[in-house]
Amino acid sequence: MRLRALLLAVLAVCCGPVFAQAGGVQIELNKLEQVNGACRAYLVTQNLTDSAFDSLKLDVVMFDSQGIVAKRLAVQLGPMPAGKTSLKVFDIPDLACDGIGQLLLNNVLECTSPPSQPTADGGAANKPVQRDDCLSLVSVSQRGKVPFIK
What we know:
Layout: H1 2-20, E1 25-35, E2 38-47, E3 55-63, E4 69-76, E5 85-93, E6 102-113, E7 129-130, H2 134-137, E8 138-142, E9 148-149
Parallel strand pairs: 1-8, 6-9
Antiparallel strand pairs: 1-2, 2-5, 3-4, 3-6, 6-7
């Protein structure tokens, strides 16, 4: 019993940040809706990490029903507060919703966390912190019939 408690304490100290990030960022393609010559996409995002994101810009590729690339867009999901669920809406111009066979999260183009706190001498806060782990934090899913893959 004491060994188990000791092992749990060691894991909490050395691996706490890893466990805190375990939830990741979930992005669900909730629905597609035709509007004025564009297909409107609704993404439900859940930041299940303990980190906020100032910017989370995705490279999203739309394929037609034959598997041919139809459109490619940069989609900004940030800012994303830690632990927050949000709805992000974007239009895919000149593309009918019924012509979309699949969406692909191709890459994360930009991913930054808020700047660190001001310095002890009262200096300004640093620039936003560039992150390189965001693609591995993101998972995708869909509610409708159009697959959203990574």
